[in-house]
Amino acid sequence: MTAPAAGRIPLRGTAPTDQGVAARVIWLEQAATATSTVLPSTSPISVFVNRDHRGHREGRGYAQTKLYGFGESRSFRCLWALEEAGLPYEYISTKLRTDAADPASAQHPGYLQLNVQGKVPTLHNDGLVLTESIAILHYIARCAPESGLLPNASMDVYARLDELTSFVLAELEQPLWSKGKHTFALPAEQRVPQMLETAKFEFKKAVTTLDHMLPESEFAVADSFTLVDILLAQTFNWAIRFQFEVPARFVTLRDRHYKRPAAQRALNVAG
Questions:
Q1: Are 113 and 133 found together in one domain?
Q2: pLDDT grade for 152, boundaries at 50, 70 and 90
Q3: What beta strand segments (E) does the chain contain?
């Protein structure tokens, strides 16, 4: 992980491995109150505490929101939104496709009590647990309405935002995840190599449709940055990393939004 920005403290400590989620959350809360920047340990669990209170709400405790994630997976869009919103949070780096005995694994029994699928993201906040990235994005946006992640706009603008969000999740993203599943995520005996060509075909079709749907402007809806811009930029970044053919227009979109300070901070945290 790269050096954190001012006001953010990376923490490492030894988490209980036999007490489930409750013990793990207690350990995280204890770690967050430590005065040293690094707790002496060799534990694989990595915790990042953001003390930025720009989005602090009365009645919300320090670093109350916990986001479990991994690198630039779907959890990254949630991490980016937290940075845009300026809400205090803890980011818990969670390993994928590792042994369940590893306390940092998404397959660890403690984590499975939070997210039965053993996937990321998972957001935990004062008893609320969310495991779908779009639900998490909307939750963050509503916790920080001044962030503009959900615009203060007409019903028509909201309808367009919902339409684009649905399209990204249902059409644009799916070929990418199909390639991921049939390349590395599924057990070898469940992979279908022929799906890779199908994924390319479906992605090209989705991109052509999006080119007609998306206005030639800086932002996807209204005249400001919203959660759908996060979705678009993160999905096209995923496509570029997976070596799909991405039109120059959408490469430019990805580059423009990834230059935002909040995106850069999120990249530093995600590692």
A1: yes
A2: very high
A3: 8-12, 46-50, 65-69, 89-93, 122-125, 128-130
Which of these, 139, 135, 217, 126, lies nearest to 169 by C-alpha position? 135
What pLDDT is recorded for position 97?
85
d(CA 93, CA 113): 17
Task: Give the tens place of pLDDT for each residue, 221-240.
Answer: 989 999 999 999 999 999 99
Position 58 pLDDT exceeds 90: no
**Count of domains forming the chain:** 2
* Residue 116 sits in the same domain as residue 162: no
Query: Rounded to the nearest 5°, which phi and psi values hold at 62?
Result: -65, 130
pTM of the model: 0.82
**Helix, strand, or coil (residue 15):** coil
Distance of CA 153 to the CA centre of its chain: 25
How is 41-70 classified by DSSP, letter by letter?
A: ---S-EEEEE---TT--TTPPTT-EEEEE-
Tokens 């920047």: give the residue. 37
165 shares a domain with 131 = no
